């Protein structure tokens, strides 16, 4: 590959670029060459982006861009000439493989400015030998604005988010707007500094755009530091709320925004910033975005960032999709369905009525399994129509995108027919109506126009079906069958003139011509009719050459047939693209309907496969889970063919005359299943409110408005926070924000500090949850002293993870039962973990002394001379007599290694030991 690039750089005509005839664009000198001047000027206008500078068949990068790109892409860094006395670093990527390299750069957080030639090199030559072909940036490629199929994960949305802030605004001073340019989704919602990070993490944008003053605000900077490279500061003018309305109306070509709804000034600022950034990155293209849709505050379950991470909803703590809740419940068969499922999972509803509508859709497919299977079979063949539409709208689409729309519309017709006559619940009925409303004339037009086999790029041609366009068919025939057409014309002339030796030939001077023997001159020129038709071109010694108007026109058509055929196809492509964009709203509505059908049928398949139940979700404060299971752990155990998951109940509902939910204080050993039990109840609540069935025998959940979870330990050394400090910060957030409709999951609060400090903090936290927050909560702890709180706090109940001891070991039953644990079994767990036996024995000894109170006030009573070695000495005492000696002898046997004779000998020896014991 490198040698081809070398040739491209040195062979100026091949580059179709450099008209500095023979002058290297990299020559050193007092001032840069014209080409380098152009590069420096374009680069200066696009600071912060790697500049892909088009030179022939390569995008070249120079200076620091080349150094960064070569390191990120693992490609060779070379040098070309000098600039201001120093070598110019350079690297490049082939144009045809640019998407692969862009994918790697975008994944690493880079932004790329794509610079193309914007004029024909021949035009540049007319301006003079020193002129450079005009170039300009045609697009800024950023993580939040990509549309290419290769660069996008079909199962994940690709959101660009903007933060708008208007200080002093009466109706809220901050708002977030987010766009998926690949599908046209556009939403906006107000936010506040206290929940800003949670609202951002809920959407999980690939890029967050903020005004420069906001970026440097000390109050918000910690949030941006957590998000990292995804945050991009931009000029404040992009977010100006005074000009926002005009920008929005101009983009959507409307006279007023009343039809969009009512927006606050901060929301208008965020919307305007998003549109301005899209215009900046897409240059001359305008993606067909949906109208901004306002999300009402409180319409989605609030999940704080720590909870979202701890519960591993879409990614595990290590960043993997495997092991997440999303992976465990995803049975969708389309990209749009997978994205909608992820959206529902990360933004569960708080409106019981809307939740019930989703549940009704799942229930319908559970009751109509044959229909559901047929639907899912049809959906498997549905391409990603919204993303194909977006690529076509911004000029980056190809024939296969049109083909994707054609197949999608055809499949939609079949699915609508499949659902016809069914008594569908409201959500599914709306989806069917959207499919029926898809433009059939447009679908038929695509079917008529597009060939069965489509090329990747429109410039390759060959994507228009034969018979669709008469002139195109003629040009293709001329291009592909010119010899046969010339032979047919020759045969006709032979018949008309009666000259059997007439030939139509071709050379580089005359082109196509008719040649006859000189003896037939009279036939060709003897009559006025012949003279008018056959035009003399050349006389040879033994032959004469003629042409005709028909042959001349045919020659011209043959010469230009390929170019003309491609030109016609490109015009048809543009016509079809314009028609596609005109139907954008209907196509997106149909695609959204397919996603709803996919998610509903997929959740039904999940419920049937895993034995999930339909939860009752209402506006009460109930939280009663019967035989609940952890959806991820349960499936992992099945894959491993391990013991089945142990189901457990959880009832935090108000009891008797209580007006608030209960708190369960959960004690028990490590590895007993406390964390699993805590997480599974939080996950069940999320699944219920996203509209899914849940892993339980039965469930009644009063809508949870805020979910908090503090499970697991981690530090944040980058911000100077120890594990305990992180624990306290997260606990503080819970105690300051939880309300009576909240669900709080807390695990081992206070374990990161001294025992009495930790116990005090945990004790006070439980009291605060009970008296002030008054929420439903699960609180796991090793501080057994806290079980005494149940006598003081009316809504607090003690529960424990059941265990059994057997021959000095502990057996975990993973069952939750009423009552309290009297010990933690830490030493037994340490033994199971493989600690040296000497350490385990010494730990038992110390534990017994502590429990017996033998060390009250005096730590030196625990000190023995080399206690670990004392344990070893005890283990090396003379072998015991009697029963113990006989037992040890038996345990020392290895039957698999013994011959029959050796086994007989052992029996005699064991008998001798038994006699001695007597």
From TrEMBL:
<dbReference type="GO" id="GO:0140664">
    <property type="term" value="F:ATP-dependent DNA damage sensor activity"/>
</dbReference>
<dbReference type="InterPro" id="IPR007860">
    <property type="entry name" value="DNA_mmatch_repair_MutS_con_dom"/>
</dbReference>
<feature type="binding site">
    <location>
        <begin position="668"/>
        <end position="675"/>
    </location>
    <ligand>
        <name>ATP</name>
    </ligand>
</feature>
<dbReference type="InterPro" id="IPR016151">
    <property type="entry name" value="DNA_mismatch_repair_MutS_N"/>
</dbReference>
<keyword id="KW-0238">DNA-binding</keyword>
<dbReference type="GO" id="GO:0005524">
    <property type="term" value="F:ATP binding"/>
</dbReference>
<keyword id="KW-0175">Coiled coil</keyword>
<keyword id="KW-0227">DNA damage</keyword>
<comment type="function">
    <text>This protein is involved in the repair of mismatches in DNA. It is possible that it carries out the mismatch recognition step. This protein has a weak ATPase activity.</text>
</comment>
<feature type="domain" description="DNA mismatch repair proteins mutS family">
    <location>
        <begin position="742"/>
        <end position="758"/>
    </location>
</feature>
<dbReference type="InterPro" id="IPR000432">
    <property type="entry name" value="DNA_mismatch_repair_MutS_C"/>
</dbReference>
<dbReference type="Pfam" id="PF01624">
    <property type="entry name" value="MutS_I"/>
</dbReference>
<dbReference type="InterPro" id="IPR017261">
    <property type="entry name" value="DNA_mismatch_repair_MutS/MSH"/>
</dbReference>
<feature type="coiled-coil region">
    <location>
        <begin position="544"/>
        <end position="571"/>
    </location>
</feature>
<dbReference type="InterPro" id="IPR027417">
    <property type="entry name" value="P-loop_NTPase"/>
</dbReference>
<dbReference type="InterPro" id="IPR036678">
    <property type="entry name" value="MutS_con_dom_sf"/>
</dbReference>
<dbReference type="GO" id="GO:0006298">
    <property type="term" value="P:mismatch repair"/>
</dbReference>
<dbReference type="Pfam" id="PF00488">
    <property type="entry name" value="MutS_V"/>
</dbReference>
<keyword id="KW-0067">ATP-binding</keyword>
<dbReference type="InterPro" id="IPR007696">
    <property type="entry name" value="DNA_mismatch_repair_MutS_core"/>
</dbReference>
<dbReference type="Pfam" id="PF05188">
    <property type="entry name" value="MutS_II"/>
</dbReference>
<dbReference type="InterPro" id="IPR007695">
    <property type="entry name" value="DNA_mismatch_repair_MutS-lik_N"/>
</dbReference>
<dbReference type="InterPro" id="IPR045076">
    <property type="entry name" value="MutS"/>
</dbReference>
<keyword id="KW-0547">Nucleotide-binding</keyword>
<dbReference type="GO" id="GO:0005829">
    <property type="term" value="C:cytosol"/>
</dbReference>
<dbReference type="GO" id="GO:0030983">
    <property type="term" value="F:mismatched DNA binding"/>
</dbReference>
<dbReference type="Pfam" id="PF05190">
    <property type="entry name" value="MutS_IV"/>
</dbReference>
<dbReference type="Pfam" id="PF05192">
    <property type="entry name" value="MutS_III"/>
</dbReference>
<comment type="similarity">
    <text>Belongs to the DNA mismatch repair MutS family.</text>
</comment>
<dbReference type="InterPro" id="IPR007861">
    <property type="entry name" value="DNA_mismatch_repair_MutS_clamp"/>
</dbReference>
<dbReference type="InterPro" id="IPR036187">
    <property type="entry name" value="DNA_mismatch_repair_MutS_sf"/>
</dbReference>
<dbReference type="InterPro" id="IPR005748">
    <property type="entry name" value="DNA_mismatch_repair_MutS"/>
</dbReference>
<keyword id="KW-0234">DNA repair</keyword>
<protein>
    <recommendedName>
        <fullName>DNA mismatch repair protein MutS</fullName>
    </recommendedName>
</protein>
<dbReference type="GO" id="GO:0003684">
    <property type="term" value="F:damaged DNA binding"/>
</dbReference>
